[in-house]
Amino acid sequence: MTSEGAAAPVDDVTGISVSHVNRSFGSVVALQDVDLHVSRHQRVGIVGPSGCGKSSLLALVSGLDDPNSGDISVLGARTAKERLDRCAWMPQRDLLLPWRTVLANASLPLENKGLSKAAAYEIVTPLFERFGLAGFENRHPYELSGGMRQRVSFLRTLVAGKDVLLLDEPFGALDSITRADVQQWLKSALDEEPRTVLLVTHDVEEAVLLSDEVVVMSPRPGRIVARIPISLNPVESRREAVTQPDFIAARGLVLDALEA
Amino acid sequence: MSELEGGFESGAVSVGHMLEPRDDPSMTFGQRVKQFAPSAAVLVGLLLVWEFAARFLSIPAYILPAPSAIIATLIKKWSSTLQSATWVTLTEVLIGFVLSLIAGIGIAVILHAWAHVRRAVYPLLIGSQTIPIIVIGPILAIIFGYNIVPKVILVALICFFPIVVTTIDGLASVDPQLKRMMKTLYGTPWSTFKRVEFPAALPSMFSGIRVAATYAAIGAVFGEYAGSSNGLGYVMIQATPQMQTSLVFAAILLLSLISVLLFMLVSVAERILVPWAREGRMQ
To answer: Which helix (DSSP H) or strand (DSSP E) does residue B17 occupy?
Structure first.
C-alpha cells in the first residue's frame, strides 16, 4: 500500500478537475455549472447546507455516477469506470461487514483485487500498528466504539491504495469528543500517507482544520459560491489549532460565505 | 417472515417456543431452565389431564389412549415396527430437506442475479404454491412408484418455497451503500455477491430454513400416504383401520421428534454460521 499504488500513469499536476458539471434527478437540479479544481495531494473541504448536492458531487467524481453535462477528470481519467479505479469513497456510516473481523474488513480491497486472505493480512497487519489500531485485529466491528469503527473504515479506504479519497461526512455520526479525536487521527494519518482528498462535511471547523482549501456551496441547485484557502501554522494539538487567529479568521470567512 | 411463522402455533410445544425471537446466548443454564419452565409446566399439566381423563372417564383406548399406554406401545412396537419406520421417514426427511436447501438457495440466487428470469419465473413459482401438495403425492407415486423418490420430492417441494422467498428477500434487501462501497474497493459482481450479498442474506435465509424444517415431516407423511411399504405415515395408515390408536399416537410422537431434531440442527447451524446476527448489530 503506497501512494503510488493507483493504476495507470498519473498526471502529476491535475488532481481532480470538474468543469461545467450539471446533474439533475428528474426535475430536481442537484448541481448547476459546478467548477472545481484540486491539485494532486491537496485536501479540499466542501461545506454547504443540507441537500446542496455535496454528496452528489462526490458520487460524480468517484465514478459511481455520471453528470448530465460537463467534464470530470480524475488524474486524467475521464470515464466513470476509470474514475472508479482512482477513487476510494468513505461514507458517514462505517459500512463495516459484521461477519468479518476488523482485520478482514480492512483487507477487503486487497481480497477484491485477487490477493489471498493470507497475503492481504500480511500487508494490512503492520498498518494496524501504524494507525493506532494494534490489538483490535481480531475483534468484530460490533465490539468497537463508533470512533474505532470509523478508523477501521478509513484504514480500509486507505488500503485500497487509491490516490483520491472522497470522504462523505466521515465523522457525522460521532459525538463531538470522539469526533475531535478522530479528526486529529485522520490529519496525522493523511500527513503520513498523502492523498488527494475531497472532504464533505457539515462541520465548518472540521473543514478548516483538515483542508488546504474550503469550498462553499449554495443551497439547491448546488453551485460553488466561495473558495477559501486555508493556511494554518503546524501545531501539536487540535486545541492549539482551533485557537490560533488564522483558524478563527478562516472559519469566519467560511461562515460568512455560508450565510451570504 | 412473521406470516409464515404464524402458521405453526399448533406445532409441538417446544418447536412453537423456539420459533419465538432468538434467545440470548449469554444466558446461564439456570436462566435457560427458567425460560423453558412455563411451557414445560403446561405440557406436563396437559399430559396429566389427558392421563386421568383416559383412565377415569372410561374413554375406550381405541378413541383416546392414555399417554402411558402410548409410551408402552412405543416401547413394545419399537423393534418390530417403529424403529425401521422411523429410520425410513427420517431418511426421506433428511434427503428431501437437503435437496430443498440446494434447490431453494440455488433458485433464489439465480432469480436474484438475473432480473429478467425473476420477472418470468417468480410469479409462476408463487402460483405453484396454490396447488395443494397432498394432491401431488399420488401423481408422484404413479410416476416414480412406491420407493423413496416421490417422498423425497414431496419433502423438497414443501420445504423449498420458504427458503426461496426468504433468500431472495435477504439478497434483495442488502444495503445499497454496501454495494457502492464494494464498487469503489475493486469489487466485481462476483466478489460483491460472495463477500457482501450472500453473508448479508444469511439471517433472512435461516428464518426460511427454520420454517422449512418444521414442514419437512409433513411432506414425508403425505408421500407415504400416497403409497408406501414402510415409514411412520405407512404405520399410521395401517394402524388406523385396525383401531390401534395408541400406535398411531406413537408414530405421531416420533414424527414430532424428527421435526424437533431437524429444527435444532438448523438452529445449531445458524449459531455457527451466523454468529454476528445474535449481536443484533447489523447496522
So the answer is: helix B13-18
**Among 3.40.50.300, 3.60.20.10, 3.40.50.2300, 3.90.76.10, what is the CATH number of A10-259?**
3.40.50.300
Q: How many domains does chain B have?
A: 1
| A109 shares contact with chain B (CB less than 8 Å) | yes
pLDDT in tens, A24-51: 888 888 888 888 888 888 899 999 888 7
Q: Is A91 at the interface with chain B, CB within 8 A?
A: yes
- pLDDT tens for residues A229-239? 888 777 777 77
Which residue type does A112 have?
N
Tell me how many degrees the CA angle A116-A118-A120 measures, rounded to the nearest 5: 70
* Cα gap B10→B20, rounded to integer Å: 14
What is the value of ipTM here, to two decimals? 0.80
Cβ–Cβ below 8 Å for B177 and A141: no
A87 in B contact zone (CB under 8 Å): yes
CA distance A84 to chain B (A): 6
Domain for residue B159, yes or no?
Answer: yes
Comparing alpha-carbon positions, the chain A residue that sits nearest to B182 is: A109
